[in-house]
Amino acid sequence: LRIGYLQAAFDEGGPDSTLNAKALEVLRDDGAHLVPVDFDLETLGIDPSSLAFILSAEAGAAFQDLTLSGHDDELVRQVRYAWPNTFRQAQFIPAVEYIQANRHRMELIAMVEAVLSEVDVYITPSFGGDNLLITNLTGHPQVVVPNGFLAENQPHSISFVGGLYREATLLGVAKAYQDATAWHETHPGGF
């Protein structure tokens, strides 16, 4: 089994770097062939954050009836970056911009598929780099599993990402990782 790991995300460092490195070690010890992979966003000429408004437009469409009825005011969280404001702002996204952004989205999907043509799945720190945004935009399936605790017993996770319509392989790898660890059975004190 060839498992890619997003090199840039693992190289970010931070308080979770030891847990992330340990996840790779568990996979290696379990017989996985680890391959460093990265997204070539620079060559592609796409900054994923410039496409994030697509997700806002889709959320706005899903909640349009709630927004136009004025019942979005009944949602509890009404701060600047809360969902109700995202739903409201989405009503003003120009259709032409949305269509152009989706053309770039297709290039992003092709880029992720190209990476996944070299490996069966890839692993990344759950909040490392732009991966969460990228997979939200591309629709690639992602499984999040626990991989330890940070300071003060704060749970931490690692993510496995698979190819489109290849969920079986992805779930098999995530389960194998969980079977090789006990993090999914461990809970912070007081729970």
Give structural notes:
With 191 residues, the protein is an alpha/beta fold. It folds into two domains: 2-47 and 112-185, D-Maltodextrin-Binding Protein, domain 2; 48-99, no CATH class. Helices cover 47% and strands 16% of the residues. It contains nine helices and five strands. It has helices at 7-10, 17-29, 41-44, 53-62, 64-69, 83-90, 95-116, 131-138, 167-180; strands at residues 2-6, 33-37, 121-125, 142-149, 155-162. A five-stranded mixed sheet has the order 2-1-3-5-4. Strand 4 (142-149) and strand 5 (155-162) form a beta hairpin. Helix 4 crosses helix 6 (83-90). The radius of gyration is 19 Å and the shape is globular. It starts with a strand and ends in an 11-residue tail after the last helix. The model has no long low-confidence stretch (mean pLDDT 94).
Short description:
The chain is α/β, with parallel strands linked by helices and 191 residues long.
